[in-house]
Design goal:
Blueprint lengths: L4 H18 L6 E7 L6 E10 L3 E5 L7 H9 L1 E6 L2 E12 L8 H10 L3 E7 L1
Antiparallel strand pairs: 1-2, 1-4, 2-3, 3-6, 4-5, 5-6
InterPro entries: F420H2_quin_Rdtase, Split_barrel_FMN-bd
Protein name: Nitroreductase family deazaflavin-dependent oxidoreductase
Pfam families: F420H2_quin_red
């Protein structure tokens, strides 16, 4: 089970407007800057993102079918803004991991409660 689409719409309209100020400095948060596959328009999507040895891992709380995920996969990359730094990433790859091993332990447990098993892996340039 991933979070419902109705919650995603609410977050896009309300919560994300507040989150855009938090993601610049809060640990575990970041902003994915990506371009629309069809429109070419730039979008900014707040996400839960964590550093890995090779790059970053993003928890897909709304599942792998979210538009922003499709945009990043189509472009094979994006820019992640985290801790007030911009990092271009590439090699976007979807991973289904029931054990959520790429996540820190407390986050792993919380995502388990939400039944989140899909992640996006991104490599640093």
């Amino acid at each position: 089970m991933v979070l419902p689409k109705g919650l995603a719409r609410f977050n896009r309209v309300a919560t994300n407007r507040v989150n855009k100020y938090v993601v610049n400095w809060a640990p575990g948060f970041g902003m994915i800057v990506h371009k629309g596959r069809k429109s070419g328009k730039e979008y900014r999507t707040p996400v839960n993102v964590f550093r890995t040895a090779e790059g970053y891992v993003v928890a897909l709380t709304y599942g792998p079918d979210a538009d922003w995920v499709k945009n990043v996969l189509a472009a094979d990359g994006c820019t992640i803004v985290t801790r007030r730094k911009n990092q271009h990433v590439h090699g976007a790859r979807l991973v289904h991991d029931e054990s959520r091993q790429a996540m820190p332990t407390p986050v792993r447990q919380f995502l388990g409660l939400l039944n989140v098993h899909d992640f996006l892996l991104l490599k640093r340039d």
